[in-house]
Amino acid sequence: MRIVRLDDGEVTRLMLRGELDLDTGDLFEEQVAAALGDRPEELVVDLHGLTFCDSSGIDVLLAARETAARAGIAFRAHRPRGIVLRSLTVTGVHDLLVGEPGSDRETAGGRA
Amino acid sequence: MRIVRLDDGEVTRLMLRGELDLDTGDLFEEQVAAALGDRPEELVVDLHGLTFCDSSGIDVLLAARETAARAGIAFRAHRPRGIVLRSLTVTGVHDLLVGEPGSDRETAGGRA
Amino acid sequence: MSELTAHLDVPLDRGAPAAARRAVTAVLGGWGFRNADWLDAAAVVVSELVTNAVRHGGGCVALHLEAHDERVIVSVADGSSVVPRRRDPDGDGGRGIALIEALAESWTVENYRGGKRVLVELAPCPRGSAS
Amino acid sequence: MSELTAHLDVPLDRGAPAAARRAVTAVLGGWGFRNADWLDAAAVVVSELVTNAVRHGGGCVALHLEAHDERVIVSVADGSSVVPRRRDPDGDGGRGIALIEALAESWTVENYRGGKRVLVELAPCPRGSAS
Ligand SMILES: Nc1ncnc2c1ncn2[C@@H]1O[C@H](COP(=O)(O)OP(=O)(O)O)[C@@H](O)[C@H]1O
Ligand SMILES: Nc1ncnc2c1ncn2[C@@H]1O[C@H](COP(=O)(O)OP(=O)(O)O)[C@@H](O)[C@H]1O
């Protein structure tokens, strides 16, 4: 997995590419810690380039959300697709991570 | 494997991407037949995007060279690299297909 | 195809789930199972089984695949005799078996060489390679 | 790692060499063999063995992999008892065994279940993941 970080004013965006699992979860946690340490207003985790996410990936996504909440920083995952969308949905964490349907602003208007 | 064909005046260029083996050899043979049927002066098979070639791939490359020779059309493979270069070299067909070292004009001057 | 099997020893490290996923999808693809969504779901199941073996199991891990016509069973054996149990999900996990139950047909546990193995029957593979 | 094995039934079709290559490189990668050039050479060996089984062998094809520490042996069994022989290359082929001999350590043939299997010992894998 590779992570590209984009700092855009108050929003820090982590764009994930590849596969999030037991092996790559640490890299994600490090990047989340670093991003939150810089205290943006919002942390957005872009899942569009993620091709795989199992339950250990879901665990680190939920942990990131928790850590952000404790630091008072808004958190949002967005644009999961394919098997990642399916895994988040069937485990019931999709809305928690991505928000209610319609609140995923950047997908609402255009292509997902 | 995918093949992109570029017709550039007298030279027809087939650019191979992916893996040339028992399964994809037919596709290559069809494209070669079609290209030779249009009677260019030279047929260049660009191997730069090829990531794999076993002996059945070598067989169809040699057959393409034969067919071109019989049709009186110049033939040249070029820019093999990695394991493809190695397979062509150790089977002794590299110079036959690509030409003597130095004659692979497009690689001689710049990046391979 | 009538009955096909594959077996694979998996060293216990953090790269094991990814290696097992890649091997299994290559094998299943070679057996004619080409539906992309189905292969993705199979990869999740394999990943959960191997991840659990790495995290909670012990000893050597062996992965087994079998296809009887359309029926595909994947199993992962480890050296621990502790039986996995679905638990309430929390901040530390507990979603692996839930994910298997959601994506596959059924799962079961057998004693195996002093440890156990967890067998999962995958959902039937839709025909065709499109998703 | 001490001794690891993998086994894989390979249905005989034109996609078999590619499927076998992908499975074998995934398995070897998972066993810690990460050198890219070495994995590429292993893929060629597997491809030659499976292609020969599809073209000249018969019956069901089974691929076997074993690693004893640094020593890796790949074998492919088919249902024909005809023994492969290096032949003079011509316009129709004859480069498969030559390629195996150039890229691997050694090869040998054994009787196996009414047919035979061709075993190849791969060259030792250089350490490190770089090529
Ligand atoms: N291979 C295994 N060996 C022993 N215990 C296991 C194994 N797999 C799962 N378990 C047990 O079952 C529980 C539920 O597994 P799972 O749903 O995958 O959640 P998680 O692994 O995230 O805790 C685990 O917490 C563990 O106690
Ligand atoms: N699995 C096999 N079963 C029977 N004969 C084989 C097998 N593999 C190879 N051979 C024989 O050995 C010869 C040399 O094989 P090879 O060098 O791979 O060349 P090619 O397959 O291109 O003819 C083949 O032509 C064939 O007669």
Automatic annotation (TrEMBL), chains A, B:
Signal peptide: none annotated. SUPFAM superfamilies: SpoIIaa-like. One of its GO terms (molecular function) is anti-sigma factor antagonist activity. Transmembrane segments: none annotated. InterPro entries: Anti-sigma_ant, MlaB-like_STAS, STAS_dom, STAS_dom_sf. It holds the Pfam family STAS_2. Residues 14-112 form the STAS domain. PANTHER family: ANTI-SIGMA FACTOR ANTAGONIST TM_1081-RELATED, ANTI-SIGMA FACTOR ANTAGONIST TM_1081-RELATED-RELATED. Belongs to the anti-sigma-factor antagonist family. This is Anti-sigma factor antagonist. The lineage of its organism: Bacteria, Bacillati, Actinomycetota, Actinomycetes, Micromonosporales.
Automatic annotation (TrEMBL), chains C, D:
SUPFAM superfamilies: ATPase domain of HSP90 chaperone/DNA topoisomerase II/histidine kinase. Residues 18-118 form the Histidine kinase/HSP90-like ATPase domain. Keywords: Kinase, Serine/threonine-protein kinase, Transferase. The keyword Acetylation does not apply. GO terms for molecular function: protein serine/threonine kinase activity. It comes from the Bacteria. Pfam families: HATPase_c_2 (PF13581). The keyword Cell division does not apply. PANTHER family: ANTI-SIGMA-F FACTOR RSBW (PTHR35526:SF3), ANTI-SIGMA-F FACTOR RSBW-RELATED (PTHR35526). This is Anti-sigma regulatory factor (Ser/Thr protein kinase). It comes from Actinoplanes philippinensis. The lineage of its organism: Bacteria, Bacillati, Actinomycetota, Actinomycetes, Micromonosporales.
